[in-house]
Amino acid sequence: MNHKINVSGKLALVGLICSVAVLLSCAPAPAATPAPTVKAPGAGPGTAQKTGWQGDWDKTLAAAKTEGVVSISTSLASPTRVMIGQAFEEKFGLEVEWIPVPAAQVTPKLSRERQAGLYLVDFQVAALSRQLGELKPAGMLDPIKPLLVLPEVLDKKAWFGGDINWLDNDKAYIINNIASPERPMAVNTNLVNPGEIKSWKDLLDPRWKGKVATINPVTNSRIGVLMHKFGGPGYMEKLVAQNPIVVNDHRQGFEMVAQAKYPVMISTMASVFMEFKSAGAPVARVKLEEGGTLAGGQNSISLINRPPHPNAAKIFANWWLTKEFGAALSRNLNLQSARLDVPTDHLDPDNIRDPSVKYILVEEEEFQDFQREVRDTVSSKVWAPLLK
Which of 38, 260, 287, 363 sits most deeply, having the most CB atoms within 10 A of its CB? Predict the structure, then answer.
């Protein structure tokens, strides 16, 4: 009797197990856990939680929206400011508060504000000299480098020269998205034949005596250092002996060349040259065999110490170095981006880097130091007789 009961119990248990197995086999398989979603920098809320740089970016953007604004002290022209502000607001919903300040007043203004306990500015966007020569030595800059997280920004293969276009020796404080070629010599094409001038030393030929206009090599110290570096020791003394006319305004010099008063003009101001060329003036820039220079104009950017909107500042610093913004800035300024992936089809050929030319980045801190040295020890003395 007991034996039969045990057998029946075992049979019932086997039946129960089989039933459960059948039910499990018919149930749908559990859904796989989705991988983290990678979205564009301007991605909005409501997405799956992300990890790594994307998670950091989304948290920063959310915090930036509570700040609502990024404040920028600048000497940029109004059309460029409008373009940047509109593009940034459309992308992220964040406002750009522009604080126009003449270059000479940047450091005194920031100093006065700090003495009053006011920290009102996130960035300085302007020519390099004030940032490198005044703000950085005074400890008024924080490094931008720790803010950079976007993969396209940190990809060194995307940049001319193999890295972000850092201008300071620390490669951490001052950047520029523009590295456009300069040709510091222009000619009147009705007075100078192609190939007739192809070297700085060609200007020492007696035929050009009294026929060269140059921007002041002392106040425009970049020209002075290029003469010294490319022409060699004693070059400036020989050029002064050629009795060139010295002007303090680039436009005045290019007018002299366009009107055939002088065949040659020495100037690095590409924007003014392009105005005359676009207007149909018979002018052309010269490709010099000694090499060329790269510069970024008024577009150097640095992070002011203790920024009032740190999250919006982080978003802005990364966006400033993206391909998208690089293309917009390049089109606005008609200058070539430091990024290799930004199109150049809109540029004048003179404003596109030539692979056959060896370039010097004239806005690097090392070059700036050399420039000041040449200005103070050579240029100011050599050119003094023509500056009276």
Answer: 363
- Which domain CATH number covers 257? 3.40.190.10
User: How do beta strands 212-215 and 245-247 pair?
Assistant: parallel
Shared-domain flag, residues 260 and 380:
yes
Domains: count for the chain: 2
Q: Which residues contact 352 (CB under 8 A, 6 or more apart)?
A: 181, 336, 344
Q: Which domain holds residue 81?
A: 52-178+297-349
- Shared domain for 198 and 261, answered yes or no, is yes
Mean pLDDT calculated for residue range 243-263 = 95
> Based on the domain organization, do 257 and 135 belong to the same domain?
no
CA 199 to chain centre: 29
Question: What would the mean pLDDT of 278-295 be, rounded to a whole number?
Answer: 92
| pLDDT over threshold 50, residue 248 | yes
Rounded Cα distance, 294 and 301, in Å: 17
For residues 224 and 250, membership in a common domain is answered with yes
Q: How far is the C-alpha of 164 from the C-alpha of 151, rounded, in Å?
A: 12
- Give mean pLDDT, residues 151-158: 97
Q: Is residue 166 in some structural domain? A: yes
Task: Tell me the two tokens of residue 5.
Answer: 């009961």
CA atoms of 57 and 291, how far apart (whole Å): 41
Nearest CA to 133 among 383, 386, 363?
A: 363
